[in-house]
Fold Class I SAM-dependent methyltransferase.
Amino acid sequence: MQKVYDRAYFDKWYRDEKHRVGSRDALRRKVAMAVAMAEFYLGREIRNVLDAGCGEGAWHAPLKALRPKARYLGLDSSEYAVARWGRSRNLRLATFGQIGQQRFDERFDLVVCADVLHYVPTAELKRGLDGLTDQLEGLAFIEVYTTADHLVGDMIGFKRRTPAWYRQTFAEAGLMPVGSHGWVGARQAPWVTSMESPQA
């Protein structure tokens, strides 16, 4: 059975007190951390954000609260989310794999892919990751969970991959870890000192 990201799905996992695993405060702190990390490596405030697998665009409001002038673009495969929030939150319809073929007029200071990749099939993940890396100017915040993590929440379609698998796959895509789900690409990697990266 194909997973459907409709209103019922988002109501259950993001709003229902019995099922949701995050809170607005936790999201606000996560967004602030990702923005601060991106700006640290860029040496300036972020100007734009790409949110890959954005769902309803939950990052939009906390990002705008921190950086009102930053341009936000969300991509998601949910027809419901894009129809409901597309205009007000600048969401567009796209699967993760399609990011491999899409190119934009500018690279992105912050690329967000939060709680997405562990549901994406391997071939699609690798296609999309190549496009994501190519369009990265500053920091990619890639929140992913593995076989080593204690998990709660939506386990339907969860791809059980090891931490080593993700590290190798991200490295092959040209990404370097800088901690706390943060990754930099070729444009920032030369400036990363040895103790900033867990792989050094």
Remarks:
- The first strand starts at residue 48 and ends at 52.
- The two ends are 43 Å apart (CA to CA).
- The chain has a mean pLDDT of 92.
- The helical segments are 7-15, 24-42, 60-66, 79-89, 122-134, 163-172.
